[in-house]
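Q: I'm teaching a short session on how sequence maps to structure, and I want students to see two examples side by side rather than one. Could you give me a first protein with its sequence written out and its structure tokens following it? Keep the formatting plain so it prints cleanly on a handout.
A: Of course. Example one:
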Amino acid sequence: MRRSITAAVVLLLATTGCGSATTSAPPAPETTTTSPAPMATPLIRSVLAAPIPVPATDGRTHLAYELSLTNALSGPATLTSLTASAGDRKLLTLSSDSLKYWTRALGDPTTPTNIIGPGQTAIVWIDLALDGRDSGSIPAELTHSVQLSVAKPIPGLIPADVTQDIAPVTVSDHKPASIAPPLDGSGWLDANSCCDMTAHRMAVNPINGKLWLAERFAVDYVQLTDNRLFNGDATDPQSYPYFGTPVHAVGDGKVVAVVDGLPEQVPTKTPSGLSLEEYGGNHIVEDLGDGNYAFYAHLKQGSITVKAGDELKTGQSLGALGNSGNSDAPHLHFHLMDGPDPLMANGLPFVIKSFRLDQRLASMDALDPLFGTGGPAKLQPGFPARDLTETSPLTLDIMSYSAGQ
């Protein structure tokens, strides 16, 4: 590359000096102004999907999305802070341990990090939670500024400490689908969903040469009875009182895919050797319209009562909650996505028409004993129960549902 630049400069000088001698000054070269001005940058960024605003049970409007950052240098880059803004308004600043908490190197979802190796890609999971007063003025565009240090600076181009502004992110104008709850009764715990660093939130699937996040807003539903998940042998699905609970259609729509006949897994045991087609276990995909597809997964073997092509009505029973596929405890995996393939799609937010928010677990750590010993669940003290409409659940919420409403 250096030879090409040198040759171009030599050619330019030779051309300027050719022709008859003259004492007049050569014409001024034409200049082209670009915006922004070109500069060497250590990071290359992309956004895996435009953020879609959705109101949630904490009274705030959430924009959940992912920044993919690739280190283009030959040495490691250490992220020291990241700021997300809308115009002059700073919406979020991550630094030190908080930035590390929300960042993972591609291919290593279990290790928090703020170091991106040479040629390596890391993903920063962003959750912008706008206060209620801001929910009516969602920004149309988001800007980001990243501060980082590089191990191998390039004199004159990239210093040891860099502040890099990265290309703006457009906020989607997609409206979250309004759905009925997929289950009926009380004690339904959202054990794995947006917007903390849960397994669903971090599920980046490399399929057909592209990264997909179908589970961005996916919910794993389990039901608490007397604040416990199971009684008796934890490896027996029948020890979970909600095993076999009817699952209901969340809206009117056509069934586009059905898989049944897969066996129940042994609770507490992590399945292995599954194909992509088996990950969802026995499942149903429903086309709700307007680019929204509903995915009901891990259903009980032999319980599905619908077939591809059926037209469903809101609240209609589809099958029963089970433990098939990639599942280590009976639960309903539910999510909305922008295509009919359960994994090769991007997850979409949704709001539930009406439900009661009864409680919330005290912290993410409260999930460990709940699934380990069955409970009792550690709850947030003094939590104010309330009825909600057109709201999205958050991980750790405990809710009461009336199917079909």
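Q: Perfect. Now a second example for contrast.
A: Example two:
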Amino acid sequence: MNQYKTRPLHQCACETCQHYPRSETAKEHRAINRLLATLDEKSRRRFAGLLVINAEYGDIQRLIEITGLSRNTICRGRDEIKRIEPRNTRVRVRRAGGGRQAVEKKTRKS
């Protein structure tokens, strides 16, 4: 089983990518989405936050079109970038207790 899962590649919905799919801007947007598809959710959020802080991608609405991420996700990533936590506290991607409960394996008693 592959331990690195990728999320589906988002198709940019911006006007430039729709009308000029071979332009440099469209190539850059595809590269951003290819990278986002390989990241886990925390890294994806932080990368989007970094793009918002960057002057070139400062508009949140524009980044929503490019990446397909929600406004809350992008704003949360931006806030996390502004206050990076100490290295020793970054252990989990999700909070403990999420996901399916463990299923007890049934065995035959002889």
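Q: What should students look for in example two?
A: Point them to this: The first helix runs from residue 15 to 19. Also worth mentioning: The radius of gyration is 19 Å.
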